[in-house]
């Protein structure tokens, strides 16, 4: 586990180092307790031919650690992808808001021009009616 830990990136290594130390201390404690409470012959009687293979346990822990690392990398990749999509969405939203603001200004200018034209038409109608009466 130490070799695997040393090959990981610094943030992950920093996070997992305390766990490794606690595992080592726990193993030492279990070994001390085992030798204190059970003699060698009692241990053989108790376990028989089924002696714990620490190499197999170490491989199992290593495979679990590798699996966890793969899951973490996959999650990081998904987070990066989600962030990229969010930034793209934000850019599209900003572009849409700018377009709508431009269209709003155009509509307001058109309304003002129509209002001015309506005023001139009303004056023209008044002049025409006056000319018609004469």
TrEMBL record:
One GO term of the biological process aspect: intra-Golgi vesicle-mediated transport
CDD domains, per the entry: SNARE_Vti1
Gene Ontology CC: one annotated term: SNARE complex
SMART domains (alphabetical): t_SNARE
GO molecular function annotation: SNAP receptor activity; SNARE binding
Membrane topology: Single-pass type IV membrane protein
Pfam families: V-SNARE_C (PF12352)
Span of domain T-SNARE coiled-coil homology: 64-131
Swiss-Prot/TrEMBL keywords: Coiled coil, Membrane, Protein transport, Transmembrane, Transmembrane helix, Transport
Top-level taxon of origin: Eukaryota
Chief location category: membrane
Protein's cellular compartments: Membrane
InterPro entries linked to this entry: T_SNARE_dom, v-SNARE_N_sf
Annotated family: Belongs to the VTI1 family.
The name this protein goes by in its record: t-SNARE coiled-coil homology domain-containing protein
Species assigned in the record: Rhizophlyctis rosea
């Amino acid at each position: 586990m130490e070799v695997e830990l040393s090959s990981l990136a610094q943030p992950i290594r920093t996070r997992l180092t305390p766990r490794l130390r606690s595992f080592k201390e726990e193993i030492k404690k279990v070994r001390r307790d085992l030798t204190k409470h059970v003699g060698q012959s009692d241990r053989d009687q108790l376990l028989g031919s089924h002696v714990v293979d620490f190499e197999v346990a170490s491989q199992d822990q290593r495979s679990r650690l590798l699996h966890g690392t793969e899951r973490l990398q996959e999650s990081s990749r998904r987070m990066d992808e989600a962030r990229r999509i969010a930034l793209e969405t934000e850019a599209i939203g900003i572009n849409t808001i700018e377009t709508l603001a431009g269209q709003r200004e155009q509509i307001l200018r058109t309304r003002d021009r129509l209002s001015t034209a309506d005023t001139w038409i009303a004056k023209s109608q008044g002049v025409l009616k006056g000319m018609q009466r004469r």
